[in-house]
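To whoever is on call:

I kicked off a structure prediction for a single chain this morning and the downstream step that reads the tokens threw a length-mismatch warning. I double-checked the sequence; it's 534 residues and nothing unusual in it as far as I can see. Pasting both halves so you can look.
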Amino acid sequence: MRVLLVEDNEDDALLIQETLSETAIEIERAELLSTALEKLARGRFDAVLLDLSLPDAYGLETLGRMRRDGPSVPIVVLSGLNSEEVAVKAVEEGAQDYLIKGQTDGALLTRALRYAIQRHRAEESLKERNRELLVLRKISQTILGSLDLKMVLDQILEQAMLSGSFDLGNIRLLDQSGETLEVAVVRGYRDPENVLRHRALSRTTESKKSRFGDRVFNEPCIEEHVQESRGFRTLRKEGVESFVEVPVRANGEVLGIIQLASRTPREFKPEEIHLLETIGNQMGIAIQRAQLYEETKRQAHELEKANQLQADFTAMIAHDLRSPLMNIMGVAETIKDGLFGPVTEEQTKWLERLRASGQNLVSLVSDFLDVSKIESGYIELARETLNINQLVSYTVENYHALIKQKELHLTCGVGQHPLEIQADRRRLEQVLNNLLSNAIKFTDPGGKINVTAQGEGGKTVRIQVADTGVGIPPREIDQLFQKYRRVTRGQKGDRSGTGLGLVICKMIVEAHGGQIRAQSEEGKGSAFTFTLPA
């Protein structure tokens, strides 16, 4: 055990040296605090025996300066001042023990020094562990706080350099082939050109020429005398004296390395290497997480492009179909009106069927166009201030003739006071027309249809179209708003459709920031309700 005795009194110094003469303790003496600090800076001591009354320092200030300006060495105060208050304060300020001159023998002093060293080591170990946990926590927060790979790597490198007071560092990741290490982020380089001078390191070829070979991919690699070693040309140009590099792993797979260097000579402790390995493993998780995010973004972009192409193609086909259909309907109407000569009753009947079939096809094409536009994000809502009560009443009036023809009972329940919202009139009429048409189509003669509109707390408006028709099987309710899915209700009569009407309703309502839902009981009717922001 090597101990620095800081004592200006010759007699006290001789007494202490005599007390410890038969022990294995080696004593070196300093009469001034400044001299003691110089000796501590030059040599390695296991402990310090410190007198608080020196020519250049006095009292607890002596201990404070020793703790502040000297290296981390356990300090045992050996004072002639027998004061419990001073003793307590000395321990609070970092002394491992407080002994009174003349009241200690060799065994007690030796034991006090040994215990001081052990406690100091335990304290330093705890501090180091706390520091490691703090570094790892900051890195974890960085990983969880962002999916930007470059930013995450840069912040992790910063924390890794701070953890060991390194001067420069870099992180290299394997390229897409998984064979070559390429520099991803760097810190602390004096000459930016030196970053470019780092050569790519291949796992299969160039690694055999490197100083560490394949070891760099499997275990920590250390060089504590860079300037005296062959190779490391770039690091030598940066003035590096020592460095360490550890693999970056995730689930046992090597993704890259992190290299940290110092411009002053240093010896790397096992606990430092262990911390860097832990950082490397955390970094591997961050890399995998960020890469998965980037891959998900790429796939989402590709899927969006594919959907866009599909929608554009559908729109083009639908548009090209509608023009000739309109021509066919126009010619049929012209022939029916007798512009090309007399038309018999039988011919009129078939021309009317031709016109009706053409109209059905035009409606089908229009539905395709609507769906493709909405899915492609082309839908533009021409919002205006609407009185929803007035809009519902107007739409319902348009169906009175058809209601009479089908022998149905239609009621409209709306308030007398205006119920205003910001919405696209044409699109909401489209929703109401679709729901009313379905209600009429699937309700048998004698049935009832009721349309209502009402406000809900000034925040939303609620519109409902309910009927006493054939209803919908419970197992098919969830399919109502899916494209090209038609339920099995009402198999008799003309109850066919494209399977797109309710899909379009849902898209329009949601584009307004609202929701739509359906309730039904087979054989008793259905109710479709949608809400919109007021």
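Update from on-call: the warning came from a stale cache, not from the record. Cleared it. Sanity check on the structure: The chain is about 45% helix and 20% strand.
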